[in-house]
Amino acid sequence: MSRFWKIALIVIAVLIVGGVAFRLLHKPEATAGYAHHRGGQGNGEGAKSDQSGNGTGQDNGPVPVTVEATTKQNVPVYLTALGTVTALNNVTINPQIGGQLWTINFKEGQSVKKGDVIAQIDPRTYQAAYDQAVAKQKQDEASLATAISTLDRNQQLVSKGYVAALNIDTYRNNVAQLKATVIADEASARSAKVQLDFTKIISPIDGVAGIRNVDPGNVVTTTTSIVTLTQIQPIYVIFSLPEQNLESVRDAFQNGANKLEVIALDRTDAHPLDTTGFLQVVDNQIDTATGTFKLRAQFDNPNTKLWQGQFVNVQLRVKTVSGGLVIPSQAVQRGPDGDYVYKLQSDQTVAMQPVTVAGEVGDSHVMVSKGLDDGDQVVTEGQFRLKPGSKVKALKPGEVPAAPAPSDADKQKWKKQGGGRRGNGGGGG
């Protein structure tokens, strides 16, 4: 075959391949465009149907909501703060004499009572010193007894002329000297007894023993710390309040006969940690750096729920408002101009009513100081569907509003969407 025919065949083959490729590339696009065009028509029809449904199926009936009436009750007013639990007494036990530590009679973390022997130092040296002091005292007491007997006999002989009066003065002075010696001996014996008693280390308070710092067998001195005892029954809670509360706290503290109740709560404010405590001290100065003043409350802590160094939330009751207006806290909404509620009107419509919340009442209610009167009804559930002037169907607390039934337009829309999915699936098959 000549070179000319070879080139011609190559050109023809290239043209055939290019044509096939062109048709393959453009045929799906056309099909997709056709399908897209058909889908667009379907969407348009669906949109028209939706618009038609929205236009004809709009629900203008009353909105079901839950309402509750305001109530009056005595409301305690609390000031809140973060407090620190502090032990009533912290005592670091140091020996009052030196010596070898024989025994330790407590377990770490154990409760000890006042007067318990918690450690023992080697007493032998101090016992010997005490015995020596007692023996010296007895020796001088015997000498005193002899001197008194000699003075009595010689006084009887003076009148008979057997003893000179000058010697009587000597006997009398010897008795006085020996009496002073015996008194000094008694003091020395008591001092030795005190040193001997110091070999028993006694707990000065009721408390809980911490981690010990020495072991039996060590030689301790008066600077050696053996253990720290902490008294936690009763126990203190120290907290701070802003200085603007000082006047109200002081007035309540003085007028309340020093019986202002204090509640210590856990870190999540879920429940009280102990029985109610009472305010004990209001500090005599304001911290200029923080603008706060300190207070101290005392708790009996019978179940030891409060522990030294623990952080707690504190509520100090400063007064009780008589006849406070109370509503559920979920009725209060927050708007750009402050708090408000939806108030039920006599024509079964609602109006936005601004309110002033004076404080919390328990976990689910608040006290309102302005904006509502006794007996007013406020919406507690369903506010998200309301606007001022909305017609409502008032339900009692605990009644669940029924879900609105789907309109005919919604049913038609769901039907078309379901049919479209089935049609697409069949086309794919």
From TrEMBL:
> Could you tell me where this protein is found in the cell?
Cell membrane
**What is this protein's record name?**
Efflux RND transporter periplasmic adaptor subunit
All copies of the Multidrug resistance protein MdtA-like C-terminal permuted SH3 domain together span 325-382
- An example Pfam family from this entry, by short name, is HH_MFP_RND
Q: What species is this protein from? A: Dyella acidiphila
- Major place of residence: membrane
Highest taxon of the source?
Bacteria
| Polar residues composition bias: residue spans | 49-59
